[in-house]
Amino acid sequence: MDQQARFDRLKALHEGSRAFVMPNPWDAGSARLLTSLGFDALATTSAGYAFSKGKRDSFAGLGRGEILENAAEIVGATTLPVSADLEDGFGAAPETCAQTVRMACEIGLVGGSIEDATGDSETPIYDIAQAVERIQAAAEAVRDLPFLLTARAENYLWGRPDLDDTIKRLQAFSDAGADVLYAPGLPDIGAIRTLCQAVDKPVNVGMGLTGPGYSVAELSEAGVRRISVGGSFARAALGALVRAAEEVKSSGTFTYAADALPGAMISQLMSQEKCIDRQ
Q1: At residue 111, does pLDDT exceed 90?
Q2: Which one of 88, 121, 129, 249 is most buried, by most CB atoms within 10 A?
Q3: CA 26 to CA 112: how far, in whole Å?
């Protein structure tokens, strides 16, 4: 499937009558596994990737180059549309956000998100004027490209539980050209429903992160059109690793292997390409 076809598929998914789940692989292997399970689209996770590199998920810990390299490996490992977690656009300036989304599109991504978080604990959220300029610049940069832009309002992740301001920001991001809207960390289904009713673009909600969990059916009924899981699948995998290791260390048994995927199954899903120059 070429890039335009992947983009068309991703766009159509957002126009459906119910929410679809877009899980977050953190490398090529997890992308292949999730593709085999029948999902319709994938999204990268800066958190999951950071954990795999032994780093914290923070603006200071990950550079644009390595994030895009990881995303390119995921794009190359699947036939599904892939959207990327592009953090804060890797710079405060609107032109930097514009450059980031263009670079993302160049490696085959058909979507990506830009946050309004600054990474500065003293002033964690960009003022709304600058936040809107950043989204507008990104939207202009990919206006004629096969790329779906998601704008994120990060209030609830940074100690600013203000639903009215969050809605105001997302409405402004929509007017600035964003295709999808996302406010991670909303407290409950009521807030999710209120937000969905107040905006005119498809809404993404993250599950498996913090707060209560809701089913796909419940979120669809509330007006959600896309559900992602952020770094929670990566954390689940790390949880399984820790439980297996603790069993071996504490009891000297290996019963964890009963729940492990068979090696033959994994081998079938991975690339069959051979390395020509192995030196």
Answers
A1: yes
A2: 88
A3: 15
